[in-house]
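User: two proteins, same treatment. go.

Assistant:
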Amino acid sequence: MAIGERVRMIDAHERVTGSIDYVLNFQLPGMLVGKLLHSPHPHARVLNVDTSRAEALPGVVAVLSRNDLIDQDRFFPYFGPVIRDQAIVAIDKVRFAGDIVAAVAAVNADVAQEALDLIEVTYEELPSVTDEMQAMEPGAPILHESLPKIAASFADILLDTREGTNWCNRFKLRKGDVNRGFAEADLVVENVFHSPGAQHVPLEPHVSAAQVSEGKVTVWTSSQTPHLVRSQLAEIFKIPLSKVRVIVHTLGGGYGAKCYCKIEPVAALLAWKAQRPVKIALRREEDFLTASKHGATIRIKTGVMNDGTLVAHQAICHFNTGAYADVGPRLIKNGGYSTSGPYRFPHVWVDSYAVYTNTVPAGAFRGFGVSQGAWAYESQMDIIAEKLGMDPLELRRINMLVDGDTFATGEPLRDLHYGELLDDAATAIGYDEWKRDRAARKPDARILRGRAVTSIIKSTVTPSTSSATAKLNEDGSLSVLTSSVEMGQGAKTTLAQIAGHYADVPYEQVSVSEPDTDTTPYDQQTSSSRTTFSMGEAVKLAVREIKGELLDLAAQKLEVSTEDLETKDGRVIVRGVPDRSLSYGELVRASRQGNLLGRGTFATSGGLDHETGQGVASARWMQAATSCEVEVDTDTGRVTILRLHANSYAGRMINPLHCELQIEGSTIFGLGQALFEEMVYEDGRLQNGNLAEYMIPSFKDIPTDLSTFVLERPGSEEVHGIGETALPGVMPAIANAIYDAIGVRITDLPITPEKVLRALESRRNGGAGS
């Protein structure tokens, strides 16, 4: 059947012909163009907004500003998935250069832009802070003087905030006695690692269209979380959920950038004021001001015995959540407990902070905090190995988690396959041969080579819920209704394969819906590598309910017991008597119901203790290993990736082709963050917020030897997420291979030629070379 087959994407024809209904192309009669006015200041009080000249401009239909939101109770003017701290347009302050101050709806883009230029805003500039460590110091400028409304939208949120500081949230993890562990250790190693903010850069920018009519708010948007957007809009408009409809077409990429509300609230309120539909499509430079990866500074301290046994782990993590919390209070949990890696530690102590700064708000980003953690712990594993005189791969092997071990959160683990993943990664780059031939290398050569292997562990959001409805039609075709978002990862295709397999219906006869909160059942989110696992289980349950109805109907018609029936290729057959059968279509028509409906809901359970961080963090633990070979030019500092290999454990693959492509995409994503991606601020303002100055990987940056491997467990019915698992190990693998080549350690991403040359110069002058 379709599971395990390399079938083409269900919407392949539409993709090739360009006929997919992206929101960017969506139009309604009388639709206006929405444009946004952004703050030029990183931190300032908003004293006055004069929109009179803009409103008088011919062709302008509505202008939205703080004047519509202060001293009124028609709307609740704040949003955010955890803390409602972001105003729809600035009310009291702007908190980063790019904050939305006003919005215009006009008959065309030129008029809207002209109107923006006519809006007069009076600011009182305030001191700003962009560094997460400086923001935590006494006397730092405070972004949010009072604690905003907290209304967590996720069951796994642990909140520990501090009013009057930039301490947005803290996650604590305590296992064993870390002080005892350090006292018993033969060696204690401590390092600080930094990774900067970065951009998702999906091909499609943020786009939202909205209409408010007859008391109902309808939004068409490029979002990964349609049901959460619906709940936020209902809260803003103070109306029931049934009065809000969110429709999501196929996304042109997301990578976490389109999780949770972004521009939907301003589009909806602008449409309300204009009393006409409005569409806002951000320019690329505006997209850079909407969401980003969390920058992070992680201090990691590890105690180890002389034989390489890890005994104690301590991490203090500061994640830069930007001007508004977004999902930062939740991300720091994942980023915090991930710093212990896929290794056995009897003693673990972690404090992980989300810190407000005057920078672009940081949110979900492919890897969800694990990339920052892996950058620290996998870099340090090689540092520890060198201090012990051990091979880095051997150090990993003797400490690797195996079935029955407990993770840092105290939960027992199973179905672990790190031995096989490490073997594959090492073999792919000839690691063992390389280490044996170390003596034959020429350390005085201008161009030197190095190789390295890393491994990571990643969780998925837990608890979480997905629901699906399946509808078997009179012609035997199957319709699957879900709110999972297709964004290029092949969700529709995978869910169609699952539905077809368990319904015994040919894959070609299955259709999968796009999300529409009025008609498609609840799904928590399309992120966290959970769609195939979570929604796939919901689809399976829905289909099995239909099959139960089919068997009952067929048993009556064929006058046999349901135990004597089987299904195959859209037919119900009497076992051993293939001539006695009925097609699905015949049975649906005989039921006189028009169709047969099945419903399925799949929910995971878990949660962590607020004080200790102990409990169940993840319903599935995702596993991966990465290996690479680099070449470093010691005259120019240029790093060339010669070979890059990544693998992941999938449990059972639904579509091997999609699995391989997801791993390739994750790997290339990591390559960019390793070598050149970073958001650069000067005087609190983003300096490279465009694709002329912000570098992303091109085809010339991709190594000619880029390979992947997906590990399956024979007979397994379990699915493990694959969408971002390979990403976190790429950055430390490249850094460790660079060290293997030239003996200098870079601890601050990205690893630019300038940093390599400075490190080489420092080593020549007697420094540590980092």
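Protein 2:
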Amino acid sequence: MRTRCDQTPAWALLKSAFETTGKAFDVRDAFAADPQRFARFSQDAPHVFADLSKNLIDAATQALLLDMARQCGLQQHRDAMFAGQAINSTENRAVMHFLLRNPPAAQYIPAQAAINKISDKQAEVEVTLNAMLAFAEQIRADDQITDIVNIGIGGSDLGPQMAVLALHAFADRPQRFHFVSNVDGLELLDVLAECKPRSTLFLIASKTFTTAETMRNAQSAKAWFEAQGGQDISRHFAALTTNLAAAHAFGITTTFGFWDWVGGRYSLWSAIGLPIAVAIGGKRFREFLAGGHAMDEHFRQAPLEQNLPVRLGLLDVWYRNFHGFASRSIAPYSHGLRRLPAYLQQLEMESNGKRVDAQGQALPFDTSPAIWGEPGTNGQHAYFQMLHQGTSVIPVEFIAVKNATHPLPGHNSKLLANVLAQAQALMLGKTDGGGHKHFPGNRPSTVLLLDELTPTSLGALLALQEHRVFVSGAIWGINSFDQWGVELGKLLAQDIEPRLQSGDVSGLDASTAGLLKRLL
């Protein structure tokens, strides 16, 4: 059994350290006192450089956080995941999305890995991956297919959409990609207005082939296809699902599945990533997987002191539970990464938005921060006012790309100047006697820097974020791999939907009944 953070000796020491030095910590004084602070609080990881030096942390606090990680059994919990143990305890499942990006020759040393037959599972992954990439190349070579429409929601939408947009510079075919997730029919109609049945491929992404929003959109897409004279459902529809019978009943013969040890928010590495593979090709999709694998190995093997996912995850705990910071703003200074904040919202808030520990006991402390943001420089002209001068301190995570993937002169230098200036302004602030132009400063930020936004570096960045969430969840003693909170509203919607036709309000609370009558 894991030890929860608040039950470790280090937790009490951290509380004391926060009261004595952490609460009044000023990063400007820290830089003045330590000329080597940037070097001490920055590091290289595979394909990602991280500057943590502008955060409200010193060497003593970091050492205590690392002690807490050891006392919580972080390393053992990490090793259990990589050995294929059922660390998703409420569903009795292993958590092995890392296998999806593992090269075929990778070997696992832990005896537990052999017991859990990881090599057999990896062989299954490779068979599915080869088939998926072969299909992707087939679609890429088909000049009659001009539009690919991915119909999914949650992990079946956020990841693939984010990655296709991020890697647009590597999309070397003229095909267009569309993503439909919202059950509001306007989104589907907007997409269909740009498509023709004979030149469109629909990808229905639902593990169970029962997801309510996805199947409603899929049925409407099929009806449109047939009404517009479309023929051969089996050619123009494919399914990313494990429910082969339901897919065949729909008319789909091309299917690619995945496994119950792949959570939806970790599934873009699997068959759910088919739109990515069609966009960038099989070779580059394997580069994307290789970037993720490189970060896996860093997380698995690097000492805790120089393990970037560990350092970020512990910093998140320090801010959430000691400083009381309730949110983190994501500011990718890259147009390609414009959907990254939405992707990270699901990754972190669905994973760690929990109020009980792995044993079902109520937690006496807060867990996941709220994740939100917009691309820079757009965000500067929207909400950065609050970041600089608001009453709440909100840590900011800047993501910058050194080399642009476009040829326009003058743009990238201006973009990079802005990201450096915003991080500097948050830290330094500016004194003004009148108050209205006073910037308090000492507001924390992290900068993650990629040399280029490539399939490899994107893979590494996303795996870094996955493991960082794993770390904070492990410290909090929660199960980061279930999502029971998603289910209740879906269940209630099944009861309410027929009432919108019948008008029956019996058994409903007064508010829901009143609103339902109003809608009728």
